[in-house]
Amino acid sequence: EAQVTQNPRYLITVTGKKLTVTCSQNMNHEYMSWYRQDPGLGLRQIYYSMNVEVTDKGDVPEGYKVSRKEKRNFPLILESPSPNQTSLYFCASSLFSTKRRRSYNEQFFGPGTRLTVL
Amino acid sequence: RKEVEQDPGPFNVPEGATVAFNCTYSNSASQSFFWYRQDCRKEPKLLMSVYSSGNEDGRFTAQLNRASQYISLLIRDSKLSDSATYLCVVNLEAGGYNKLIFGAGTRLAVHP
User: Fold this and answer.
1) Do A103 and B31 touch (CB under 8 A)?
2) 3-state SS class at B68
3) Alpha-carbon distances of B68 from B22, B24, B25, B89, B104, rounded to whole Å
């Protein structure tokens, strides 16, 4: 089954304790991305990766790190979590495709990770 | 001003009703447009793309007005299973890749 998986699904931690949220996709997608979702703000992009060893900052990268050593995996690292990083996190992946002058970019999302930092 | 703005709702409608959601976007360079659906505590999933000519998928109709930078979604004959949050999404093509910008969503509750 084609899917994006994330682990853990739920995590409660304390300020300053390093954590990693894993993300894996089995669709051979080049593009992967991390979002956070907060009430009233919608999904905001944290980091994205266009391919192996190619990563770049999204709109809200502060306090996060990522790596892309393999095509299928894109872990999100919080070196020193703080309470303002309490949020719902989604990993997503997609192919690039262009048709004429338009680009279609359906993103497939993982099930989400609900993180609480105390 | 937010890049993509939606009425947060909730829209509370009876089964069988027709309901319309609107969305405005600020960047005129936006290339393509989508509606995603998100069920409570679940991940967003693509509902439909939005084309300039308008497009229909069963009970769902999407419209795009580039001049007014406005997107709409019409749901006819609402079902209980349509209850969800609907996310307006705009795709910007920049630097060789596509960036999706999400609205905060409009919540729909369909009741018996």
Assistant:
1) yes
2) coil
3) 12, 8, 9, 16, 20
Q: Give, in degrees to the nearest 5, the angle at Cα A4 between A74 and A59.
A: 50
Tokens 């290339």, located at residue: B31
B4 touches chain A (CB under 8 A): yes
Does any CB of chain A come closer than 8 Å to the CB of residue B105? Answer: yes
Interface test with A, best of B97, B101, B106, B107 (most A CBs within 10 A): B97
- Residue B80 has φ and ψ, to the nearest 5°, of -55, -35
| Higher-confidence position of B27 and A92 | A92
| Beta-carbon separation of B104 and A40 below 8 A | yes
Containing B81, the helix (H) or strand (E) segment is none
Cα–Cα distance, B32 to B30 (Å, whole number): 6
Rg (CA), chain A: 14
Interior angle at CA B38, CA B29 and CA A97, nearest 5: 45
Q: Are B78 and B17 in contact (CB under 8 A)?
A: yes
DSSP A106: P
Q: What is the pLDDT of residues A2-60, one digit of tens each?
A: 899 999 999 999 999 999 999 999 999 988 999 999 988 889 999 999 889 999 999 99
